[in-house]
């Protein structure tokens, strides 16, 4: 099994950092793709940035506690972190709803 | 009447920029003070930063469309922007509720 990326503990997830991670159009686009609560691979994040910039955005979401990343061979599967979405449910669920209606 | 600070038009207020503005502990603290929807002066924002840093934080909130700033003589009165809170009501109202319960 490949080495798995690090994720912050739930108690270390900070609202300010969550907001900061959401504060970018490309990262909001990634969140929109992830909103169906299933795992996605990076090819599915149709953001208009290069591979290293996409990796940077994904790292920010992971380190903020918003996403869970799982390596399988050379592939990385990304999904929303259910525990963080439980903790900040009202804010994050309404964010996904807003993104689904394409406002903002 | 003194020159008033500039505010973005509501249609130019972007969700990503709103989140970016909220992505800082000091600015979340300012939002907590403003949550009663009345005007406040900068002395009331009890954040542990110097005057120029506080001005910087207030500028970011204003330029993101979150706050309205009104000069009166040498004083500046700050309040939440009702139109932005109407537009992103679910996300922003739940953010204020979360801040009121001191989570995050």
Note down, in words, how this protein is organized.
2 copies of one chain form a homodimer. Chain A has 104 residues and is of the alpha+beta class. Chain A has one domain: Arc Repressor Mutant, subunit A (Orthogonal Bundle), CATH 1.10.10. Chain A has helices spanning 15-22, 25-34, 51-64, 82-87, 89-100, and strands at 40-41, 67-72, 75-80. In chain A, strands 1-3-2 form a 3-stranded antiparallel β-sheet. In chain A, a hairpin with a 2-residue loop joins β2 (67-72) and β3 (75-80).
Topology:
The structure is a homodimer of 104-residue chains.
Chain A: H1 15-22, H2 25-34, E1 40-41, H3 51-64, E2 67-72, E3 75-80, H4 82-87, H5 89-100
Antiparallel strand pairs in A: 1-3, 2-3
Helix pairs in contact in A: 1-3
Features:
homodimer, 104 residues, alpha+beta, Arc Repressor Mutant, subunit A
Fraction of residues in helix of chain A:
40-55%
Strand order of the largest sheet of chain A: 1-3-2
Number of domains of chain A: 1
**Computed CA radius of gyration of chain A, to the nearest angstrom:** 13 Å
What's the rounded overall pLDDT mean of chain A? 93
User: How many individual helices of chain A?
Assistant: 5
Q: Can you count the beta strands of chain A?
A: 3
**CATH architecture name of chain A:** Orthogonal Bundle
User: CATH topology of chain A, anyone?
Assistant: Arc Repressor Mutant, subunit A
